[in-house]
Peptide chain release factor 3 C-terminal domain-containing protein
Amino acid sequence: MQIEVVQFRLVNEYGVETYLETLPYLVARWVTGGWAVLEQVGRLFNTFVVKDRWERPVLLFKNQWNVDQVMGEHPELELSPIALTPTTEKD
């Protein structure tokens, strides 16, 4: 809903046409060990690496099957379906 509001304002206030292009990812997992662990693992297939607002790595997967595949190939990789804010993270 909010994206449509931004698009409406851009076209009506600034004359700028925009379009929304969705990505095919449905599952997000945070890398518990951070960037260092992700670098040790190396290239991961069927994933898209992004970062959250606190610069932590997040892996995007097309489906749960891709998550299971990566976890099977890299058991040392610890992934979390949720991320705590830095002020509430465990020590």
About this structure: The longest helix spans residues 2-14. The CA atoms of residues 22 and 47 lie 16 Å apart. The chain has a mean pLDDT of 92.
